[in-house]
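Q: Joint fold for the lines below.
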Amino acid sequence: MTVESPAELTVRAPERAPAAPPAAEDPAGGAAIVTRGLTKRFRGGQVAVDGLDLTVPAGSVFGFLGPNGSGKTTTIRMLLGLVAPTGGTHELLGLPLARALPAVGAVVEGPAFYPYLSGSANLLRFDAANPAASGRDAARRVGRALERVGLSAAAGKRYRAYSLGMRQRLAIAAALLTPRRLLVLDEPTNGLDPQGTREVRALVKEIAGDGTTVFVSSHLLAEVEQMCTHAGIMSHGRLVAHGTLTELHAGRSARLRVETPDLAHAAGILASLGLADVRAAGEEVTAELGEHAPDRVNAELVRQGVAVRGLAVARPSLEEVFVGLTGEGFDVDG
Amino acid sequence: MRTGKLVRWGVPVAAAAVIGAAVAAGPVIAAVGSDPVLPERTASQLLADAAAAAERQSGIQPMSGTVTKTASLGLPALPGADAAGGDSPLALLTGAHEVKVWYGSGERFRLALPGEMSEKNLIVNGGQAWLWDSASNTATRLKIDLGPQAKHTPPTPQPTDMTPQQVAEKVLADAEQHSTVSVTNTDQVAGRAVYQVSLAPKDPSTLVKEIKVALDGETYVPLRVQIYAKDSAEPAFEVGFTQLSFAPPAEENFTFTPPAGVTVKDQTITGAELAKTDRMDDMPALKTVGQGWSTVAVVPFELPSDAQAKQAVDSFLKGATPVSGTWGSGRLIKTKLLTALLTDDGRVLVGAVTPDKLTELAGSR
Amino acid sequence: MSTAEALVLPATRTSVTWRLLRSELALTFRRPRNLVMMAILAAVPIIIGVVIRLVGSEGDAGGMIAQTAGNSLMLTVVSLFVLVPLLMPVAVAVVAGDAIAGEAGTGTLRYLLTAPAGRGRLLAVKYLNAVLFGLALTLTVATAALLTGLVLFPAGDVTLLSGTTISLGEGLLRVLAMVGYVAAGMAALAAVAVALSTFTEVAIGAIAATVVLIIVTQVLRAIPQLDWLAPYLLPTRWTGFDGLLRDPVPMSEIWQSLLAFGAYIVLFCSLAWARFTGKDITS
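A: Joint structure:
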């Protein structure tokens, strides 16, 4: 791993301290995660991640999107130092991994805890493994983390008796034990019911609201679209696109959809206004909106006596973006 | 991020190398380190020195140490050797055995035979002796009525009418009739520099390649005897000190008070009894044939009538090779060092000779 | 960053390791399975004591039994002698073999490492934990045996294997030394088990491999033709604590055994380190 310039960092800690989340701006130009040519070739010769160049801006909610088996989890394991890359470099928060990790919370491939321990005992266990956390106020930290995910009432219950949603929330609580600058969440809503999914999404938004960078992997396009400011799309171990959601959408323009019985009339007006790709079918006319303002288009239609029953602007979904980029369908069931 | 693969695996490899070197080469390093300590001696000079030293100090000088005996005679697993326990005569034929010895000044010594969670002790203090066996919780008071001949003398000849040099030359002349004698001064036994006297038989029909006797470089006390069989780099039989100190042992070693609650027995051994067992007078008509290294003992033999013993002998003879010749027929057992022939006409021939030589000697009655 | 102020001052390296070790010990000594093993092993001296009390008084008993019936301290020695060749090593193997493989199996290993516990530190703490479990187990057995002995048999001077008699106080000191010796032997085994534990993600596999190794070495030891190998095998060394019952105590042999334990510890801990620090955690 390369270290850009750790000397510039201000660390509010004694010199011996292994790591503390530095409060100063990181020197990597505000990037929470940077990878350069990150590659993992497994012993069998199979390439799981192939030359990944990824930049996750600090403060963003980054959706790491891709079907199952596209190399998302292997990438996350490399980022967290669980798996050694066979090529390339990466850094978190502009720091060497060992110093960055205390400032990174992670949920990797679902929750894993000691079944015979209670929720709070489990959190104390992982808190003890963090060299940047002091034992003195561990209980307070654990209590706060449990409260944050709404598990205070179940703190004394054995993990064995937890429901899937509670387990997932406990894993997030473990990731939130100490203040984090980066949160890595691998499929955080996997296996949750709609209620649990909503809770997790709300939690992610709240965490992001505090200024924490959130890196969330998912195979659910809708989820990423709802939660994220940025996204990267993985396919067969390669990053096929990444940027802000707006940037990703930019390639495909939004379409205007007009519901009306006067198909021919409406189509003629839209064409005369200069909208491209005008199509009429059934009871609606669609066209590429381009730079036109939908309200102006509507006013013109009404002025010329078209009976407008409905008018909508359809942004292209990430799925369409994905299909456009890879020419493949997206496995939504996962 | 992580230490290189080579560096990482280099650590256990280096650890293994250091441990391996310490285990295997420890004695070698010690030997190399103190190589030229002893002045060179020819065989006759050495024997003369030893005889002179033996004259100077009567009896064995105070010392303590561990004597280990290793035998790898290449015998098949002896039936009953395990069951009979670590100190049975059968078990002594195979494997390694350890005896701890303490010699004090005067007629005092202690022998301890340590077993797993047990110990046998022989403590001799002048005319008083105790035999202690922790396994049976028994202390036996031995009354030894020593005859003058049973004194502890070092195994070197002491005829007073000859000078040490003369003794040495005579002994050497006898030895060189059958063997090549050589001396080395570079070995170590139990951390002490020794002279190693080697006797290599000239007779081609013996199984013995070489006998080595190590004499302490300072006191000339024999510290080790090794017998090498032909075609074998490791000694087939070895007895010697593995640990040795010439510091006088603590007095407590030579006193024994039976602990409370143990069985105390009394037994008297007279000098005559000791002498008798030494000479094996009760051995039936032992005679020898052949000469020098090819000397073979001939003993009349009868299969035991006791069923259990018979079975043991039978199972032992299962591995024997049937042989026959003009002398008759029999069964042959060969080990690295000894060959035994059990003839069908009721004789046992045992010698450190090749099977061919043994069957040849079987013909000469 | 607003949350950074809430961060507590990080502690020193030693106190960080000590905290992780305390957490590890709490896990080990709260785990029902481990407590049951300790209880079973502690029951063995009680059973032996009661049996000797019932049988041993019938006159013609052998040396060790008669000595046990005659002195309360000897029950500790006999109990260790019975448990050290197999049962205690198995219990230690269960805890030490579980060390890394158990965490990998439940998936908690990935969370410990991202916490981040640090691979070297986690391994050291896991090994120390197994060593302390071995020590606690030996102490538990010895204490159970001492108490049972004091209740069932007379206390007084102790007869050593060499036939020498020592005072009860010195006897107690020697028992304490035996506990230390046995714990060192178990520490050597723990190193082997922890090393095996880094090669698998199935705890039972590492435990079973260690137990099989113990049994195989016990068998090898019983073959007379392999006598030359015996001094290098752990089980040969384990029962060497009987040297502390001899007079004089064969110190050179005891040091040799402790050196052998040390060699095992160095070799297998370095193997475990080499494997674990380079391992891809995919569980």
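Q: Anything notable?
A: The longest strand of chain A covers residues 31-41. The interface with chain B takes residues 1, 81, 84, 96-97 of chain A (CB under 8 Å).
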